[in-house]
Amino acid sequence: MKEIRFDGRVAIVTGAGQGIGRMYALELARRGAKVVVNDLGASRDGAGADTSAADKVVDEIVAAGGGAVANYDSVATMAGGENIVKTAVDTYGKVDILINNAGILRDKSFMKMTEEEWDLVIGVHLKGGFCVTQPAVKVMKENNYGRVIFTASTSGLYGNFGQTNYGAAKMGLVGIMNTLKLEVAKFDIKINTIAPTAWSRMTSDLFPPEFEQKMNPQFNEPMVLYLCSEENTACGNIYAMGAGWYGRTAIVSGDGVCLGDAQRKISVEEIRDNFDKISDMENKREHGSGLGIFEYMGPLLS
Ligand code: NAD
């Protein structure tokens, strides 16, 4: 079996000071990549900053014979994102791999959520995805090569009580991917989104104690490293995972129904009378872009 290697590749992993991101950084370096270990060293709710989080992971990589450099910028500003990418370019000359992983939580039920809690979570996850990815993709385009990962969550894909801010940010990243993949299609830049599950400080009070081993953050790492490898040709997909289970998830649409002739007014009663057909998902289909939805309207538009 040919080993998947990252020799000669330069990777940025945001929020790599602990948890799932640390696993990516350690294994990328073990397989030959030079790694920018970004971490603000924030607490779970995003407060504070501590350089030791990133430093410890860099020390671990270097002690094992790998190459890594620390960066302590916040992903949540464009200046921070640009500096994270600059750290990679100044130290190693380029960026081949970007894993957007940094994250915080400010859980609150929707009706109790404050503007600050909303903005902070959207800022780190969604704006952070923009602020680091834009300067990184600029460098990737120059080299006609790149692998980008966005980190979503099942909370965004399917919902989770108390996480409207987090869920909205995570689904927003899927929205970035869906369009960015089209904008960089002519370059060898593959962009995918993952929804990980792991025991970390983010989840340790949600999962039962026996999950600590079973939900080891390591289980997310091989899937993400595969998606970041040269061998991977998948782009624009969403993969969920945890505890050794890996599966693709997707946004799909059903066949629906064409009413009228694109001339006459459609009544609300016609919607009611066709609601089962409109809601039917038996023939699910994915679309490579928003234009896909025009396939269904074809008979009405021709
Ligand atoms: P974690 O709290 O262990 O690690 C997150 C890291 O991000 C921390 O080291 C923190 O310092 C860093 N960070 C926070 N704000 C930052 C900022 N502004 N700039 C740079 N670094 C910052 O969390 P984790 O469980 O390892 O989660 C990693 C990612 O996976 C997050 O995006 C999280 O939302 C996502 N996720 C995790 C789970 C899970 O089950 N653990 C589930 C779904 C999604």
TrEMBL record:
Molecular-function GO terms, alphabetical: 3-oxoacyl-[acyl-carrier-protein] reductase (NADPH) activity
Record's keyword terms, sorted: Oxidoreductase
Domain of life: Bacteria
SUPFAM superfamilies: NAD(P)-binding Rossmann-fold domains
EC number annotated for this UniProt entry: 1.1.1.100
Keyword Transit peptide: no
Name of the molecule in the record: FabG2
Domain annotation Ketoreductase: ranges: 9-205
InterPro entries: KR_dom, NAD(P)-bd_dom_sf, Peroxisomal_Beta-Oxidation, SDR_fam
Family: Belongs to the short-chain dehydrogenases/reductases (SDR) family.
Listed CDD domains: hydroxyacyl-CoA-like_DH_SDR_c-like
